[in-house]
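User: Could you check the structure of this?
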Amino acid sequence: MSSFMQARGSRLRRRQRFTALAAAATLCLTGLISVAGPAAQATSGATTAYVANASDNTVSVVDTVTNNVTATIPVGFGPQGAAATSDGTRVYVPNISSNTVSVINTGTNTVTATTTVGASPTAVAVAPNGARVYVANLSSNTVSVIDTATNTVTAAVAVGTGPDAVAVTPDGTRAYVTNSGAGGSVSVIDTATSTVTATISAGAFPIAVAVTPDGTRAYVASLGDSSLSVIDTATNTVVTTVATAASPYALAIAPNGARAYVANANANTVSVLDTATNTVTADIPVGSGPQGVAVTPDGAHVYISNLGSNTVSVIDTATATVSATTAVGHNPAGVAIGTTAAPAPTVTSVSPNTGPPAGGTAVTITGTNLSGATAITFGAGHSATAVSCTDTSCSAVAPAGAVGTVDVRVTTAAGTSAVSAADHYTYAAADVGVALAASAVPGLLGGHINYTLTITNHGPSALASATVTVPLTAPMTATSSDCTVSAGHLTCTAGVLASGASTTRHFTVPVGLLTLNLPYTVTATRTASAPVDLNPANNSASRTCTVVTSLIILCS
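Assistant: Sure, the predicted structure tokens are below.
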């Protein structure tokens, strides 16, 4: 018997079980990695490797960008691996010598709950919807079912002898459990009833299992005869057997299902299996005693825990070579990849923050985590067009909306920005009313007509500015202290006016040059305003005055 096998035989006595964490492979199929694809990868959060250090009773947290250990989390005795929920908020760690599962909060990297399960838990798998965790209990020949809402065991399913690994199908309807004891078998659990519905013979000492992303096949690694059994999940029968290198201990399948990666514990290699032909296309040297395998959600890298080297090897799948090696704790027994949920977007400003109810205003929205936006809404049910976003800025065209203030919210795969005062956009309209009064001032030499222009904002929005133009028919001239006089017309402006407020402007027309006995009509018209004026009916006002003599001026 090899020294490696002897170490396995004494796993319970030494508070560690030198075995692969098949749950790492399960994770790649049942939660985070099952959503692989261009859109999913564009919006996913950061990926993190969780490495169970069996002799240290810790989990190392490895940043998959830098491949540095960023945290070390104390857990129970003899942690064997990890599996994360699909939203990336929790990681479940089976502790073989504590008979517990530790629940890690990934936001704080702390254990927030500890659940007692069966004897010698070796592997865990999380259901695709995150509602259940399945725990293989090596010594009690059961699978514990944990309700993740309460972190309590809701069922204990009797399986074969020595359950070593568990994988859940992508649809969540079945769990496949390898039984490494006498005879060697795979139990198929109906997750709806928590009962075993089939038992499959699958090589000697089956120790790891993974299900393809399409759910049609289950791959089982058998330590005793160095083989992979391929199970047709429709019939639950073995359809082919593939020879592997010495002591296949763990396996994981790529997110696209094209490759399987097999950790060969005694050969210190990882085999790459083409799942279309079920042939080995490469054997990649890694560290000593590779135990666990996990694939990143984009399929670009494979993480291998090396029991004898106290390291994690990172394989570049494009080149089939080790691109990085990270030192972790003692006797890393398994590894899993968790995807931290991408942070929700935030909106910190909208510019300009006002526009007409008809829409069409080009706006710039600033904030954080805006890239990959799937929608920008202006109030309920009104979506912007021509949306283009970077991480900190979006350009968009405002849709039509009712007069009033709305929240501009950005939606990405990570969620929708929270409502705040910073995201306000106002659909504004101010009804500008124009009134004109004429007052005759007769005089032998200085007769004239005084005009009073009243500009009123009838709302509903505040008026930012308005311009009223008054043409002057020749030979009329005018003087004014608060309007601008140009050749042939006057321009009177108003600034900010609250709804219901008014302001007046004045100008004077001398009568000395006017032809006698002719009526002269002066018309004042709003020619511009902000915000938009939706009511043109009250935008003009006229007054007519007839100069009989400089002493007789009649205005109506």
